[in-house]
Amino acid sequence: MPRITLTDLIEVVTKSGSPKATKVSQLKNRAAYDPATDFYKALREGLVTLHKKGGAKADLANLTKGLMDPKKAANYPPMVAGYKKWWGNKTLEWFTPPTETYTSAGIDVAINPELGLKVNGQAHIVKLYLKTDSLTKTKADLIVSLMNHVFAASQAPGTQFSVLDVRNSKLFTYSAAGKNFKPMVDAELSYIASLWPHV
């Protein structure tokens, strides 16, 4: 059964026409995951470790020290600055976030939010958005809607499902008053499933 990430799914959803089909082909034919080529891995893991240890906002500076890769040296500081701005005066307390797989049309979607944080006492399960492309409201709504769908039943009442646009210090949180994006997600997964054998 094909397995993709939540980020993969969002990239397919937000394309149309031939670029959409091209993206599905890229997903099917890409090489196996290699940590060495995961550009954001060190930053994601650094944030997780910082919060797990109960670190302070000042400790964020350590995430940009000793970067040998010129691209990381250029990209990591603005992301750390964005995260620091979002942190602001909030009290952040770590808890382990859940992980889950959502399956539809024979496609598995791995949903692995990086952070479980009590933000001023309010539990938030947070997916980090680190890409340079702007996080549109549609993308954010799709991410938090699917997180809410797969996690809500297993989490304490009042838990918030959010995606953080790290570069722009903006947190998007699921709202039950918003549009139901699940049918759209399922339709996209059916599209991926129908195209998968032919690319």
How would you characterize the overall build of this protein?
The strands form two sheets. The chain has a five-stranded mixed sheet with strand order 2-5-6-7-8, sandwiched between helices. Strands 1-4-3 form a three-stranded mixed sheet. The chain is α/β, with parallel strands linked by helices. It has six helices and eight strands. The model has no long low-confidence stretch (mean pLDDT 93). Helix 1 (6-13) runs antiparallel to helix 2. It has helices spanning 6-13, 18-29, 41-52, 70-87, 137-151, 182-195, and strands at residues 3-5, 92-94, 100-104, 107-111, 115-119, 122-129, 160-165, 170-173.
Which SSEs are present, and which pair or pack?
Blueprint: E1 3-5, H1 6-13, H2 18-29, H3 41-52, H4 70-87, E2 92-94, E3 100-104, E4 107-111, E5 115-119, E6 122-129, H5 137-151, E7 160-165, E8 170-173, H6 182-195
Parallel strand pairs: 1-4, 6-7
Antiparallel strand pairs: 2-5, 3-4, 5-6, 7-8
